[in-house]
Design a protein that fits this description.
Blueprint: H1 6-23, H2 36-45, H3 51-64, H4 68-73, H5 76-82, H6 89-107, H7 115-119, H8 126-136, H9 147-155, H10 164-174, H11 180-193
Helix pairs in contact: 1-11, 2-8, 5-6, 9-11
Length: 220
């Protein structure tokens, strides 16, 4: 794709955002949770795992672990077995337990509301912190960059970066801050429902007119 002018890219980004909003007005985080702690735990579990699988595991997990103290005091092997259907379950169990102990020691058992405090917790990077801040608290300090957002931001020509932190920084320059959370949800939904890694449905894509990677329509 030829290099776009700043004005052209700005206009195209505006149309992409509008198209995603029209296609997915109800887009939301598809992890099941009822409070910030549950979202934090679910997001830690979701690394390299589908939301569907996480939701199957947390349905029982959340019934027996309601507070940070419940996780902190749980026998390590018991907690690990409770999430054994999740990939890397032993490491994730250790991270969850360590994170919850930090919540008790430094935050009164509550999930903090700043990027620095969240990323200081075991198992929490910028992606997880952005999910918790934007979805649980409505605090927009960044954009969630998961595999779908990373893939589609490249396909849409929004950035050529491949590192998640650099992708986030690039997207934050083009997407208005008030749309950071909704944009990430809508892009994730688009990646799951329309723009798959293999065989994307370009013919049915709601934003194909603004996508430099869209395949040409098949002639009949």
């Amino acid at each position: 794709m030829p290099r776009e002018s700043h004005a052209a890219k700005t206009g195209r980004t505006v149309r992409i955002i509008a198209g995603l909003e029209a296609a997915y007005p109800g887009a939301h985080c598809e992890l099941n949770f009822s409070d910030p702690l549950e979202l934090l735990v679910a997001t830690i579990l979701s690394a390299q795992c589908t939301d569907r699988q996480v939701n199957l595991v947390t349905e029982a997990l959340f019934k027996h672990h309601r507070t940070a103290r419940d996780y902190a005091d749980a026998p390590a092997d018991v907690l690990a077995q409770a999430i054994r259907r999740i990939g890397l379950f032993r490491n994730k169990a250790k991270n969850i337990q360590s994170a919850c102990r930090t919540l008790l020691e430094k935050h009164g058992g509550e999930v903090p509301r700043t990027m620095d405090e969240l990323t200081a917790l075991a198992g929490v990077g910028r992606k997880t912190a952005n999910v918790v801040l934007g979805t649980a608290f409505g605090i927009e300090v960044g954009i969630v960059v998961d595999t779908h957002v990373a893939r589609l931001s490249g396909r849409l020509g929004l950035t050529r970066e491949t590192d998640p932190v650099k992708i986030e920084t690039a997207l934050m320059k083009w997407v208005p801050q008030g749309r950071w959370t909704s944009f990430s949800h809508q892009l994730i939904w688009h990646g799951r429902r329309r723009c798959a890694a293999r065989n994307p449905d370009c013919a049915g894509c709601e934003i194909r007119d603004f996508c430099p990677s869209a395949s040409a329509p098949t002639e009949t």
